[in-house]
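This section describes the prediction task in plain terms. A model, or a person checking by hand, is given the sequence of a single protein chain and must write out its three-dimensional structure as a string of tokens. No templates, partner chains or ligands are provided. The sample shown here is typical of the held-out split.
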Amino acid sequence: MFELNKNFNLLEEDLAVSGLEMSVDPTFGIISGIASIASGIFGASSAASANREAEKAQKKQEKAAKEAADAANKYNKQAFEVEKQNYYNAREYQRETDLQAWRYNQSIKDYEYRAVVNRYAKSVENTQDQLVFNSMAAVDAYAAEQASLSEMVSEDAFSRQGMLVDRLQQEGTAALGQAGNSRSKAIQSRLAAAGRDSSIMDASLASSVEQSKRNLNQIAMQRYGADLAAKAQMMIRPEAVPDIPIPTQAPERIFIEPMKVTPTYIPPAVQQSTVAPIISGISSGASALAGVNWKQVFGQ
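The expected answer:
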């Protein structure tokens, strides 16, 4: 107040020195000063209101950023769980598909092996039947050859018996019809002829016996060859192939959880100074009030 009064005195002295008198209505200065101070107060209030609005806007942005981050994290978590479930579903489906294919291929393998075993058993049966047939055929051939040889021996015996009878008859006839040397020569001639015939028959019989032996050997060889051919046509004993390996699974996939989304950074709200308008208003008001002729106001 002292400084204000001092300023007023100095202003009055300056006006007195200059020879001028205060002719301005002091009310205008007072109103101007009060208006300046009111303007400063209003500016401070406006700044405070703007600061509050800025803080509200900042909080809304922070809330929106947090809600967006929470929604993104919720979606990422659900998508991650769905991806894992889809992976394990596909893995299980592939496992069942592989096992089903393995069981089918295994059954086909077993069926084919049983079919081969059955064909082998039938081949063995056919071979045994063929061997039996070859044996029976050989026995029949042996019997036929033996019968033929026996027939030849019997015929030879009958022939020899007939020759003996003929020789005896011829010897008797020669003995009765002749005498002396002529009779002896005739008997010797009959005996020589009988000997030749007997030798011929012996040779023929021996030849027939040898031929029969060759025939029997040929029958044996033919049977042996037929047996070899039958055995050669028999299937080789089948061997079971190893089982089809059970399908294996690849190692499980390693999952990495999604990174958590953080709210977007919201810069602090810009704050306006609430003191500066008041200081400016007070300063302007003080200047206006300093120019008021207070003596005139108070009638001095």
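For orientation: Confidence is low (pLDDT under 50) at residues 1-23.
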